[in-house]
Amino acid sequence: MPATDRFREELLTTFRTFFAEAESKRRWNPYTDIPWDAVNREAPESLALCAETFMAVESFLPDYVSGAFSVIRESSLGQRWFTANWSYEELKHSIVLHEYLVRSGKRSEEALHDFHAQLMGRRWNVPFSTGRQMTLYAIFQEHATFLIYVRQEQVALAHGDRALAACYRFNARDECAHGRFYEAAARAYLEEDREGTLRDLALVAKGFRMPGVGIVPDYDRRIVTMREDAHIDRDLFLKKVFFPTLRRLNVTRQEIAAASAASRREAQDAGGTAATG
Ligand SMILES: [Fe+2]
Ligand SMILES: [Fe+2]
Fold first, then answer.
1. Is the pTM higher than 0.90?
2. How far is the CA of 262 from the centre of ligand 2 (A)?
């Protein structure tokens, strides 16, 4: 469905608000704004392993950017401009974790260059095919990442590493702002086509996976460490990310269940027609 003028205008207004706030309150520099002299070089390896895992997930930026532009480039100017700015902010999340790993002495530059090269041997593919679906996916992904970074900040502080805690704090603040932009976009999609957006929301919720799954080497083992350290699992995702998002979008669980049932019925009918036709 082509975007209406109202949708385009709303997204542009949302972008302007987002960008003004980013420029005035959220700009930061990974090289100069972290108290690098407060790195705890004696902190356990699990902290470095987690930082390396998140750096790895953030490092698929080329795929995220090309994927995002491929699904929203026709949609609206506000979304295109947001995506360009978002890319810059995401870039800093990789930079700052890379810096931490080197400055803490946990990894050498050489090892990290090899690791980055290894990562680029794999590719992240867009998990959903439309701008609307990817916008909904991004809400959950950004808020989940926000939650992870906030937890990791606590873990870093508990190990006396104020530098790493600051890395996570800056990253978390950006992720939260990204999640809020995508939520505003989702509200505009709901205004345009509530039924279709609810169906997409049900689809995305059902198939949701964090972006690192399947592309970061040893992801499962790494995630065990993260869960042990920061106590994050699916229940927490539902409680802290999924249901609060529905509430903020003013969508009920019943609506999601009904949209999901309608999509299932449609698929069955289509299957029946194909079998008999
Ligand atoms: Fe990020
Ligand atoms: Fe983000």
1. yes
2. 32
